[in-house]
Amino acid sequence: MLIKRREFLKVSSLAAASLMMPNFLKAMTLDDALEPNQKILVVLQFTGGNDGLNTIIPSKNDIYFRERNSIAIKDSLQLNDETGINPALSYFKELFDNGELSVMNNVGYPDPDKSHFRSMDIWHSASRSDEFLETGWLGRFLDEECYRCEHPTQALEVDDMLSLALKGENNKAFAFKDPKRLYQTSQEKYFKSLYDHHHDDETVSYLYQTLGSTINNADYIFEKSKSKKTEQTYPNSQLGKDFKTVASLIKSDINTQVYYLSVGSFDTHVNQNDRQKKLFSDINEAIKSFVTDLKSNGIFENVLLMTFSEFGRRVAQNVSNGTDHGTANQMFFISGGLKKKGLLNALPDLQKLNEGDLIYTEDFRKVYATVLKNWLKADSSKVLGWKNGVYDFI
Questions:
Q1: I need a labelling partner for 154 at 20 to 30 A (CA). Which of 29, 220, 361, 363 fits?
Q2: Is 168 exposed, middle or buried (0-12, 13-18, 19+ CB in 10 A)?
Q3: Which one is predicted more confidently, 36 or 338?
Q4: Which positions make up the signal peptide (predicted)?
Q5: DSSP for residue 60
Q6: CA 164, 165, 167: angle at the middle one, nearest 5?
């Protein structure tokens, strides 16, 4: 059977959903479920550079209100005498009060880059700002922990394309947007028939094999997503649907330890407050449903939800009632298994700036090392090359 160019493109498109290396293609038998009480990581990416100063708010700082005379948040929900949280994140305030949320302030890296693409690559790869890596920190986790990851569903991204963060040298995660849609596509007679025909061309043969593995994985993910249907109501937003998918998979006996989601864009150069309020409201309601779902099933202690954004914003507002690309930012950690709760460190010092930008105090690679070592029980020094210690909040 000769493959035509149009057919080749169709096969390539479906195969791209899995983004797997050849060693994965030999493993057509599915892994067993995770061990009981094994920890699960859920990463939520705030794409576009969220404004951290209007998220965790220095509510008694005169510099903040002076530099943001029209966009400063004046009705924040107080976390302590000096600090508030954006009112659109009311459920985060509840989690904070319950000891189920930790905040690491002023996270960044040396010589920060203000390009969305470059800074996101740095966060995804856990590289230095002058270093260019083709693998991501979670992808290298899959490489290092390959004895536990013989199948690509060990890590899943709810998206149409796989992020750099989940690409290893030898192992990669599996990306999909909707289990049912992926399954339906994989079951089309065209693809089933195409896979049954061998082709000697090396490139096309690789695509056939990848297609076969993708069909297998699509069936596996779809069946697991249906096995533990939730009774929890989720918002009808895209993020709400994504979290519902993740919750259904966590509650099944799928072998997945890492989930990755994204929301945005937070690139708020103009009319920031309205845009950020809408995004925060979506995030707040989706996470409220997600945590409620986990709690009702007794698994909240074994799941860690971590958020990050590629950079923060400048301290002073611009003339368009927005903020421009900045540097350091905060990270949220939500779980029933936190060792330390609340604000883990001080807010950024607004008196000490670098040409109008915050000066980071916490390196994001130390946060990653903490998650890898203390939560995922991996060798963080091998995955990251990071040997400068870890935090103790998890």
A1: 363
A2: buried
A3: 338
A4: 1-27
A5: T
A6: 60
CA distance 381 to 301: 26
Q: Among candidates 166, 50, 39, 40, which has minimal Cα distance to 107?
A: 50
Rounded to 5 degrees, φ, ψ at 363 are -85, 130
pTM above 0.70, yes or no: yes
Beta bridge partners of 304: 41
User: What is the β-pairing status of strands 258-264 and 155-158?
Assistant: parallel
Burial 274-312 (b: 16+ CB within 10 A, else e): ebbbebbbbbbbbbbbbbbbbeeeebbebbbbbbbbbbb
- Which phi-psi region, left, alpha or beta, contains residue 271 (left: φ > 0; alpha: ψ -120 to 50)? left
Q: Which two tokens stand for residue 146?
A: 């390959």
Per the DSSP assignment, residues forming a β-bridge with 101 are 334
| Geometric angle at alpha carbon 270, from 268 and 275, rounded to 5° | 55
Q: Which CATH code for domain 41-179+232-384?
A: 3.40.720.10
How long is the chain?
394
| Sequence ranges of the domains in the chain | 41-179+232-384
Helices 202-227 and 238-251: crossing angle, nearest 10°? 80
Whether the CB-CB separation of 92 and 290 falls below 8 Å is answered with: no
Q: Which residues fall within 8 angstroms of residue 5, CB to CB, at 6 or more apart?
A: none
Residue whose C-alpha is closest to residue 35's, from 243, 218, 256, 193: 256
Q: What is the tens place of the pLDDT at every residue in 287-343?
A: 999 999 999 999 999 999 999 999 999 999 999 999 999 999 999 999 999 999 999
> Which residues 6+ apart lie within 8 Å of 286 measured at CB?
234, 235, 237, 239, 240, 242, 243
